[in-house]
Every structure is written in C-alpha cells, then in structure tokens.
Amino acid sequence: MNTIQPEPPAQPPAVFLMGPTASGKSGLAVKLAHALNGEIISVDSALVYRDMNIGTAKPTQAEREGITHHLIDILDPRESFSTGQFKTQTYALIADISRRGKLPILAGGTMLYFNALSNLAPLPEADESVRAKLDQQFAEFGKDAMHQRLALIDPESAARIHPNDPQRLQRALEVYELTGKPLSQFFQEAQASPLPFNPIKLVVAPPDRKLLHEQIAKRFRHMLAQGLVEEVEALYRRGDLTEKMPAIRAVGYRQVWAYLKGEDDYTAMTEKAIAATRQLAKRQFTWLRRETEAAHF
User: Fold this and answer.
1) Contacts of 102 (CB under 8 A, 6+ apart)
2) What is the dihedral of CA 139, 142, 145, 151, to 10 degrees?
3) Rounded to the nearest 5°, which phi and psi values hold at 203?
4) What is the DSSP secondary structure assignment for residue 14, as one 8-state letter?
5) Which long-range contacts (CB under 8 A, 24 or more apart) does 161-170 make?
6) Range(s) for CATH 1.10.20.140 in the chain?
7) What is the pLDDT of residues 94-121, one digit of tens each?
8) CATH topology of domain 209-284
9) pLDDT at 170 over 70
10) Where in the sequence of the chain do the CATH 3.40.50.300 domains occur?
11) Fold of 128-188
C-alpha cells in the first residue's frame, strides 16, 4: 500500500532588493518594509562600519522611519567582515525575522554578498599571515601577474574577477592557499544544497546610465559638502588604520585618504572618487544582468 508523503514545509520568503549605487534602494526598502511588515538587512560591505556615515550614504535614524535595520554599525573600521561571516549572520537573521512573522528585506549593492547567500558554501575565515604574504606579492609582482596566477589554479574565478578588483582577487587566492580548493568549487558545492528560504529577487536598474552618472557626481559632491573629508580625517588621525584595510578601501574613502596623504589635490580626489563610483556601478550592472530570474524595474 502506497503511503502519501507529506509536503515539505514551505521555505519562508525573503526579498532581495538589488541595484547599483545611487539608485534609491534604501528609500525603496523602507517603503517596502512599511507596506509588507518587514525588517531590513543591509547588504553593503561598508555600512557595517561605525564612524563611516557620510561616504557610505548610511541612512539616518529619520530616514529609517522606525523600521528595524540589521548589519549596520556592527564593526570598528579596523575589523574585517568576510563573505562567510555575512552569510552566517544573514541566514540567522532571516530565520529570526521569519519566525517573528515579519518579512526579511535584503537591500544593498554588494553583489558578492547577494551571490554568497545562494551560491557559496562556507569559506575559511581570513588569515592575516596569508593576507600579508599576498599583499607583499601584489606589491612585488603586480595585479596582472597575480590574476594570471589565479587563472592557472581557478580559471572560472579568474574569468569572473577583474584584475582591477584586488580585494576579490586576493580573497580567491587566499581561499586556495588555505584550503587547496579553488573558489569556484565552493560555488559548485553550494548549488547542490537547498536554500533555507525562498528568495524573491527585485532589481532597481535605472534605464538611463547618463542620469545615474550625473546622480553619482551630484551625490559625491553633496557628501563633500556634508563633511566627508572631515569624516575621513577623523579616521586618518586615529593612527591604527591603513589604506589596505577593507573599510578604507571603500569607494570615496580611499580617494579622500590619498588626498589627506598629499598624493592628490582636491580636484583630482573628487574626479577620481566620482570615476571610481561610476566604475563600481558598471560592475554592479554586470552582476545584475546575470539575475535573469529577478523582476527588473
């Protein structure tokens, strides 16, 4: 006699609100949270840092409109926050928010984090000694040679990671150094495992790139008027931070840091920061084009 197997329990939904920088994701996330009884999980590698408010366009308490936001202001700028840490904490947050009868709304522009949630097995934690060795090799041989090294051990990751993205390039090499396994293998292993939630993917993609570029320039100049240089100067004067740390590598911060070191004048700093932000948006669009199952608007 055949027995009827019970249906597996439905996975809780989680909204992924993705988009390039300066596209209005934060405000839209708040509106969705009000409408859908949600809480927001920030998917932004810079918003995790305290004392970095202006240059990250961190939403103020007023802009959050009473909606609970997670993964904002959780670290000091001298600390690092790996993709694995993000994934672990976010999975726990999604489960907790869902248990309380609310909707998790994941909003941000760090596409590597979004990708990790559905396409990445647990990675080893960062190792300072390995990173120091890789930093030395990057300085000695250059980013192109290091990218060629990655291509030999992990051609799939090398095809996905641009030589001008040293942070991701270093991480891929570090993972191989620590485990002997290419980063792409971790992606393959993750794809074989079911997700503990049902992602509903939404993409905010401004159709007019020229308008977005203008908005990026306008926003950065507004950040300068708000006191971005003074914000970075306070970090610079601490004495325990360097431009090699992930927090200071953030777009805008690294250009102002170079200005404070006397490497660029004010005009060059402004132009470089705007150009770097536009390059970031371009990379984000590249990621977003792969989200074929998402609703684009």
Assistant:
1) 37, 38, 39
2) 80
3) -120, 125
4) E
5) 162/283, 164/279, 165/283, 166/138, 167/246, 167/249, 168/112, 169/143, 170/131, 170/134, 170/135, 170/138, 170/146
6) 128-188
7) 999 999 999 999 999 999 899 889 875 6
8) Helix Hairpins (1.10.287)
9) yes
10) 13-123+194-207+289-296
11) Histone, subunit A (1.10.20)
- Matching residue, tokens 């051990």: 153
Greatest Cα pair distance in the chain? 81
Q: Which amino acid is at 45?
A: S
pLDDT tens for 271-291 read 999 999 999 999 999 889 888
**Closest by Cα among 162, 118, 164 to 14:** 118
For the four alpha carbons of 85, 88, 91 and 97, in that order, the dihedral sign comes to negative
CA contacts within 13 A on the Cβ side of 108: 24
Start-end of CATH 1.10.287.890 domains in the chain = 209-284
Q: What is the pLDDT of residue 127?
A: 81
Residue 83: pLDDT band (50, 70, 90) is confident
Q: Where does the pLDDT of residue 1 fall: very low under 50, low under 70, confident under 90, or very high at 90 and above?
A: very low
Stretch 13-23: mean pLDDT, rounded? 96
Rounded (5°) CA angle 122-125-131: 130
The answer on pLDDT for 26 being more than 60 is: yes
Fold of 13-123+194-207+289-296: Rossmann fold (3.40.50)
